[in-house]
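hey team, just a heads up i'm posting the complex here instead of the shared drive bc the drive is being weird again. everything in one block, sequence lines first with there labels, then the predicted structure for the whole assembly after. its two chains so it's a bit long, scroll down
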Amino acid sequence: MIKARVTVTLKNGVLDPQGKAIEHALGGLGFGGVGQVRQGKVFDIELDSTDKAQAEIDLKAMCDKLLANTVIENYSVSFV
Amino acid sequence: MIKARVTVTLKNGVLDPQGKAIEHALGGLGFGGVGQVRQGKVFDIELDSTDKAQAEIDLKAMCDKLLANTVIENYSVSFV
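-- predicted structure starts here --
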């Protein structure tokens, strides 16, 4: 079994109101020196396979089709 | 400036209906051999500081106070 982690983040330049809200909330809680905050998503996926090369191809296809909106988001695949 | 990545994931045993929905959707799209899927959050945070040790302490405090619900979620801090 392969355990993979897919991280989906907003592309640079795409507005992130959720991140901005967190940024302000952290300031309000007294955390100084906090610059930009951007929020993304992470998916921990288990695959019943042992072929990492094929798994990476499959995971990228999953990102393109379902997990990420590639117009505004980047994704990265890593194995854990 | 320090760039940090905070990853917040559900603890084991906590139900994740969103992950389950993704699991089923991937099956419906024809991706076979997909086991458990768990969804989490990722925060990319910039800090105006150069002291990584202090930054790690601050980031953990941010997680405890705002970013994670430590009753049901784990978090990890890494620097990029």
